[in-house]
Design brief:
This protein is of the alpha/beta class. It has helices spanning 3-9, 29-35, 76-87, 102-114, 144-155, 189-202, 215-227, 246-254, 260-268, 272-292, 306-316, and strands at residues 14-19, 45-48, 54-59, 65-70, 90-96, 119-123, 173-178, 206-209, 234-238, 297-301.
Length: 317
């Protein structure tokens, strides 16, 4: 079922999760072990992230080095199919511009369509690890809106090859990213929302936000989006703070504010268990406030600490 259809039919708030594919060499059982406890809460969707190849240097026998590309977390499409088969749940794969050609993206979309996957999240993706700024694949997309265009074209039966006449029409529901505290490359929130609206006008169906720790940022973002004519569902992205190191890493990586009260409580924590207790209580407070304000979807980034999210959901429902 499409995400927007599920949301329209929902009589109560929807729960969804996001996971990382395991690193190459690990079994999919690591994903099942991660998700099994959380399935108690009947999530409607599970997002699966997509990852570009990384360039690494490998030493040759003669002592010299060669640069090679390695995809450390492959398997997004296969994981989506496995989750749908095992849990009878809708999976939402991420699609990214970085590191992928338009042809590779088209072939991935064909695979997803054949598997009966109806939802995708279209993202630009991050710069490569060895690059300061984002550079697209030579035959790929520079911006997420271009990726949205390609998906919409396939929904209309339009493929890259000109000789494909009356191509099979896909039927993807398209999500895009939103940033309540703005994308780090945007000069301001209004400019950021302008580009979100462009993606919606091209055919995207909903927005999933970057994580945030201050609900006011989310509420203000929705208000400003509506003022700019963005009227699609805007999904709240949530993640627990689990250790003191994240007080500096998360703002740097995700361009998000950690509220003073949360910082103070986390700094008082004496050990890892105390840190997780603080993070759990903060996330619980966020969720209760969001539900009180009729937020339709709670989307949890489960990366690393599913037990914390389990404890929050156990107290909510």
């Amino acid at each position: 079922m499409k995400f927007t259809e599920k949301l329209a039919d929902a009589k109560e708030p929807i729960i969804s999760f996001e996971i990382l594919p395991p690193t190459k060499g690990k079994s999919i059982e690591s994903i099942y072990n991660h998700l099994n406890p959380l399935m108690e809460f009947n999530p409607s969707f599970i997002n699966v992230t997509y990852h570009r190849a990384e360039q690494v240097f490998k030493k040759r026998a003669d002592g010299s080095f060669e640069r090679v590309e390695i995809r450390k977390r492959p398997g997004t499409v296969g994981i989506c199919a496995a989750l749908m088969n095992k849990y009878k749940i809708e999976a939402i794969p991420h699609l990214i511009c970085g590191g992928f050609s338009k042809e590779e993206t088209e072939n991935a979309l064909i695979d997803l369509d054949f598997l009966g996957i109806k939802n995708v999240l279209a993202l630009r993706g991050d710069a490569a690890a060895n690059e300061k700024f984002f550079n697209p694949h030579p035959n790929g997309h520079r911006y997420a809106e271009d990726l949205v265009k390609q998906i919409v074209n396939m929904n209309h039966g339009v493929y890259m090859e000109d000789d494909i006449i009356e191509g099979a029409k896909t039927d993807f529901c398209i999500g895009v990213a939103g940033y309540p505290e703005k994308h780090f490359e945007s000069p301001n929130v209004d400019t950021d929302i302008y580009y979100v609206k462009r993606k919606i006008d091209l055919g995207a169906d909903y927005v999933t936000t970057q994580l945030f720790f201050n609900n006011e940022h989310y509420y203000n973002y929705i208000k400003r989006c509506r003022e700019h004519g963005v009227n699609v569902p805007i999904i709240a992205g949530l993640k627990p703070l689990s250790n003191k190191k994240q007080l500096t890493t998360l703002p740097r990586i995700f361009n998000v504010e950690v509220p003073v009260d949360l910082c103070n409580e986390m700094n008082k924590a004496k050990n890892e268990a105390d840190c997780e207790k603080v993070g759990t209580e903060w996330l619980l407070h966020q969720c209760r406030d969001l539900l009180k304000n009729n937020t339709p979807v709670l989307h949890f980034y489960t990366l690393g600490k599913p037990s914390m999210i389990y404890n929050v959901l156990k107290q909510l429902f």
